[in-house]
Amino acid sequence: MHQIQQKILNFADKLNLKRDGFRQIGRLVGEPHPFKVSYHLKKLEEKGFIKIDKKTGEIKRIKNEEPQKGLFLAIPILGSANCGDPNIFAEENLEGYIKVSKNIIKAGDGLLAIKASGNSMNKANVNGQNIEDGDYVIINSKKQPQPNDYVLAIIDNCANIKKLLLDSKNKIISLMSESTENHPIIFIHETDKFLINGVVKYVIKKPIVNWS
Fold this sequence. Notes:
Blueprint: H1 3-11, H2 17-29, H3 34-46, E1 50-52, E2 59-61, E3 72-82, E4 96-101, E5 111-117, E6 136-140, E7 150-155, E8 158-167, E9 172-176, E10 186-189, E11 194-204
Helix pairs in contact: 1-3, 2-3
């Protein structure tokens, strides 16, 4: 077991996600990155060592039980990201989990889910899927972004899903929409304060419900 997971397990019965948040839990166990804390919590729950109450945030250690091996990945949902102008404040709050078959998404480190807001990426192509309002976008928070990747970017504390372009000569980073609508390009100098939190890996389309 990873040493951070063991530390979380040692404190499990005293922790509450809603009260403490990923940052405070990270300080307690010596992990400064909230997304990594989220990952280790997810792995402990997948293995059957802990149970997280989605309503209260209470974390309970499961004792005297064998770790569970399921057919699904439990990917933490860490809020929404704008697919337009940057106006959704980026908060690292756990909103729950999306359970996805391992036949749809391969297991991997650092996976997290973001709910797309807006249609400025409705012409993107992620494994043949575009990104529309209400879709779940699966982010690999450990992958190093490359030019032309779709990324989760934090700009002025706002979360955005955009296409990454680099102008190395002029030290300019461009974040572009791919849409049927008209959205401005965001130009960032490489010395500006911003964060690329990961690369888009999959898109889980919003279910289409037909009641007729």
